[in-house]
Each structure stands twice: as structure tokens, then as C-alpha cells.
Design a protein that fits this description.
Blueprint lengths: L7 E4 L8 H15 L6 E4 L7 H10 L10
Parallel strand pairs: 1-2
Length: about 70
């Protein structure tokens, strides 16, 4: 991203729970990658987490529920 000119990078762990990877490993890797790039704003968000609609999406993809017409 930095090589392409990014001045702000937001890392979003696409995980369902705040386990070790989301809370420790990913932030450590991001900090290491950001070393030497003080002119770039880098932050790590909380993990994706659970959402009421995730179960619905899983059932839709499994063919057990009609897809929602709402976007």
C-alpha cells in the first residue's frame, strides 16, 4: 500500500472473535511493517466479530433460506 502512495492504512482483522491473532499477532505484524514509515498513519481495528445477520448468510449460502431482498 505504501509503495502505491497510501498515507493511511487501516487493518481490519476479518475474524469472528478477538482471539490471539486479532489482539496480539496482527497488531505486532502491523507495527513491524509500519516501522520506518512515520509519515503513514496505520491503525488496527477490532475484529469483525459476530453479527445477527451472519447466521442468515450461512443459511442462505447453504440453500436452507431464501436470500434476503434487502441490501
Amino acid at each position: 500500500c505504501i509503495g502505491d502512495g497510501a498515507t493511511e492504512i487501516i487493518v481490519h482483522p476479518y475474524m469472528l472473535s478477538p482471539g490471539r491473532h486479532a489482539t496480539t499477532d496482527i497488531p505486532a505484524m502491523v507495527n513491524e511493517a509500519a516501522t520506518g514509515h512515520r509519515d503513514v498513519s496505520v491503525r488496527v481495528t477490532g475484529p469483525l466479530g459476530l453479527h445477527d445477520k451472519l447466521g442468515q448468510v450461512v443459511l442462505e449460502r447453504a440453500g436452507l433460506l431464501e436470500p434476503s431482498l434487502q441490501s
